[in-house]
């Protein structure tokens, strides 16, 4: 009974002994993670562009644009309204601001003014933040106009200090009821799904992809054993073909888990994704995915006769599952992509991971996905064992 | 001496080509039996059948009284196999290789470690036991290859071309080891292309050609077939029986 474990232990020992392969298999996921963090998630300051169409052209509008430009990390790009609409239509811009005609006049006369916001879909995360910043700038800017106008009125009308205080109270209440400048949604051009944080969406897919890569490529170990005659030597010992498969299966799971745990721990530590409970559940889920992938690797190993065949079969399987399993884009509810995604581990694993990483679900909520992954593991193990050439290599 | 291995009418074909044809021979207890033959004669296929890796299409094999077909686990307890290729894990140390294969052969952990140390001493590798095998010379790797086959304390050892591509010192060391093993009671089935090696080591020899065992006997008996055993070489016997045409 211990022979499969000894065989798996040997594989892990060989994996750890090959420092070059170990460095690549651990360093490359870390490098990819660092790149992703740098590109998608590692920014500590905000940088964006406010896309503005100034239809007013007055003094107040010009000064407001200058104030927006003064905000750190925020640039202003000016458009005509037609050009802004065109850019929104092409998704070149997701959020635009229109300063309407009469904006300056309204401010000077004390009439409430509005900056219109045009969005494509939700306007994107950066657009939403920019809109909030523009609102803040506009509030401060308008307050100055209001203060100037109010002071002039107070000085000319107030007769006693009590009268002055009373009028200030009225003005503040009016301002609270109706801000002098409002940033109002003008129109949403195209309804879109709520945009997720790109790193949150990619991370589960990347974890599963690496698990698939590391495990399916371990299909080569059986080919290597065959090429080096160690497979034949093993089959002259008391190791049975069943124990050989169990050992190789455990070895594949172990290799995949070593790599995945590094990536998971790193992701949780650096991104502060969720608590230790979610990390533990993610690791358990990784174990299930690794089991399914390891069993697929055994099918590849029994069918392939050369390193090249095993490598290309593994690459095909991994790429198919990565591309059609929702790693880089969401799976629609119907259609060819939805159909193809059903035959990937990624779809089920990513669904389960998204809930766990967001801490909106637990492993218990992913029973269906785990059952599918487990069924893949069991059925592929049986298929691989049947495919193994009993007549030529095993008793 | 009793027959420890009895192979009767072994036949094996691959894709319609007969590789071994009605081959019959025995290996006695405490005997070094040489299986000689040109390339493609069927020696390796025969060893694969004898060592439980391959099922014969026809024929019967009994080792230590057990049928290879029906009692493969019992047979595997009795045999050690040293294939022609270096069947080991080069990134691991000699000790790790030996202990692993010992465990696969059913030895408990402590016993496997003790046995590995004992065998490494026997093959002269104690000083390098902890080094990765990939750093070894060709001769040292060959010795590890043999050492692994000895881990299960076999009563019958299969040595398939164990001295290919090594220096005279290592070859000599292997000869001494094989002879010592025989003297300790082990049976050895030995294949080689080197006729002087077979002449020096083997108690009896079977010559295979085109899947058939075409001659059986002691080196002296075989030499007597074509001339004076004192002046005739085993190579002359071999060429006389198998012909001089080149083999693929």
Would you write up a description of this structure?
The complex is a heterodimer of chains A (395) and B (248). Chain A is of the alpha/beta class. Chain A has 2 domains: 3-40 and 196-387, no CATH class; 48-188, abc type-2 transporter like fold. In chain A, 68% of the residues lie in helices and 8% in strands. Chain A has a 5-stranded mixed beta sheet. In chain A, helix 3 (59-70) links the parallel strand 1 (48-54) and strand 2 (74-79). Chain A is elongated and about 110 Å long. The two termini of chain A are 18 Å apart. With 248 residues, chain B is an alpha/beta fold. Chain B has a domain at 1-78 and 186-248: P-loop containing nucleotide triphosphate hydrolases (Rossmann fold). Helices cover 37% and strands 25% of the residues of chain B. A 6-stranded mixed beta sheet of chain B has the order 6-7-8-3-9-10, sandwiched between helices. Chain B has a 4-stranded antiparallel beta sheet with strand order 2-1-4-5. The longest helix of chain B has 16 residues, at 168-183. The mean pLDDT of chain B is 91. Classes of the chains: A alpha/beta (395), B alpha/beta (248). The interface between A and B is medium-sized, with 24 and 31 residues.
Instruction: Detail the poorly predicted runs of chain A.
Output: 189-195, 390-395
Name of the CATH superfamily of the domain at 1-78 and 186-248 in chain B: P-loop containing nucleotide triphosphate hydrolases
Instruction: Label the structural class of chain B.
Output: alpha/beta
Spatial shape of chain A: elongated
Fraction in beta strands of chain B:
25-35%
When the domains of chain A are counted, the total is: 2
Q: Main β-sheet of chain B, in a few words? A: 6 strands, mixed
Biggest sheet strand order of chain B reads 6-7-8-3-9-10
Number of strands of chain A: 5
The count of DSSP E runs of length 2 or more, i.e. the number of strands of chain B, is 10
Q: Roughly how many Å is the radius of gyration of chain B?
A: 18 Å
Fraction of residues in helix of chain A:
55-70%
Strand content of chain A: 5-15%
Taking the sheet with the most strands of chain A, its summary is: 5 strands, mixed
What CATH calls the topology of the domain at 1-78 and 186-248 in chain B is: Rossmann fold
- First-to-last CA distance of chain A: 18 Å
């Amino acid at each position: 009974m211990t022979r499969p474990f000894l065989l798996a232990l040997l594989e892990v020992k060989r994996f750890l002994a090959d420092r070059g392969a170990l460095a690549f298999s651990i360093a490359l996921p870390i490098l990819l993670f660092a790149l992703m963090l740098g590109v998608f998630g590692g920014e500590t300051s905000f940088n964006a562009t406010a896309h503005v169409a100034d239809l007013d052209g007055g003094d107040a509008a010009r000064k407001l644009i200058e104030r927006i430009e003064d905000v750190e990390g925020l640039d202003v790009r000016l458009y005509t309204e037609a050009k802004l609409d065109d850019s929104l239509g092409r998704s070149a811009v997701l959020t635009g601001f229109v300063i309407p005609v009469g904006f300056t006049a309204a401010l000077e006369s004390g009439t409430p003014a509005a900056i219109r916001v045009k969005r494509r879909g939700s306007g994107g995360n950066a657009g939403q933040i920019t809109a909030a910043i523009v609102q803040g700038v506009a509030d401060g800017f308008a307050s100055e106009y209001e203060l100037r106008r109010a002071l002039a009125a107070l000085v000319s009308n107030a007769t006693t200090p009590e009268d002055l205080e009373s009028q200030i109270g009225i003005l503040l209440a009016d301002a609270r009821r109706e801000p002098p400048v409002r940033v109002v949604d003008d129109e949403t051009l195209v309804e879109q799904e709520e945009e997720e944080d790109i790193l949150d969406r990619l991370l589960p897919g990347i974890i599963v992809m690496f698990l698939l890569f590391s495990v399916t490529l371990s299909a080569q170990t059986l080919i290597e054993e065959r090429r080096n005659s160690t497979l034949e030597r093993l089959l002259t010992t008391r190791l049975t073909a069943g124990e050989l498969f169990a050992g190789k299966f455990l070895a594949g799971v172990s290799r995949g888990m070593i790599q995945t745990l590094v990536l998971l721990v790193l992701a949780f530590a650096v991104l502060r994704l969720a608590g230790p409970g979610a990390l533990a559940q993610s690791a358990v889920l990784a174990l299930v995915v690794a089991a399914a992938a390891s069993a697929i690797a055994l099918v590849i190993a029994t069918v392939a006769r050369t390193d090249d065949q095993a490598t290309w079969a593994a690459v095909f399987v991994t790429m198919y599952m990565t591309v059609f399993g929702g790693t880089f884009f969401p799976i629609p509810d119907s259609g060819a992509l939805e159909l193809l995604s059903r035959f990937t581990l990624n779809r089920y694993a990513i669904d389960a991971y998204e809930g766990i990483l967001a801490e909106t679900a637990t492993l218990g909520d992913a029973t269906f996905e785990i059952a599918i992954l487990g069924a893949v593991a069991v059925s592929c193990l049986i298929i691989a064992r049947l495919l193994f050439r009993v007549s030529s290599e095993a008793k | 001496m009793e027959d420890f291995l009895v192979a009767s009418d072994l036949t094996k074909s691959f894709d319609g080509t007969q590789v071994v044809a009605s081959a019959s021979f025995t290996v006695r207890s405490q005997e070094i039996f040489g299986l000689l033959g040109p390339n493609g004669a069927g020696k390796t296929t025969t060893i694969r059948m004898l060592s439980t890796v391959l099922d014969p299409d026809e024929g019967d094999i009994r080792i230590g009284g057990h049928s290879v077909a029906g009692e493969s686990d019992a047979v595997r307890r009795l045999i050690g196999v040293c294939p022609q290729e270096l069947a080991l894990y080069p990134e691991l140390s000699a000790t790790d290789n030996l202990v692993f294969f010992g465990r696969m052969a059913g030895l408990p952990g402590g016993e496997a470690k003790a046995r590995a140390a004992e065998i490494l001493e026997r093959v002269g590798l104690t000083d390098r036991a902890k080094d990765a095998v990939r750093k070894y010379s060709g001769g040292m790797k060959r010795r590890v290859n043999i050492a692994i086959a000895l881990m299960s304390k076999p009563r019958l050892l299969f040595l398939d071309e164990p001295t290919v591509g090594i220096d005279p010192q290592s070859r000599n060391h292997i000869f001494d080891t094989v002879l010592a093993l025989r003297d300790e009671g082990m049976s050895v089935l030995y294949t080689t292309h080197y006729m002087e090696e077979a002449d020096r080591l083997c108690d009896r020899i079977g010559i295979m050609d085109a899947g058939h065992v075409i001659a059986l006997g002691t080196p002296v008996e075989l030499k007597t077939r074509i001339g004076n055993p004192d002046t005739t070489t085993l190579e002359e016997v071999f060429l006389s029986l198998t012909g001089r045409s080149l083999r693929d």
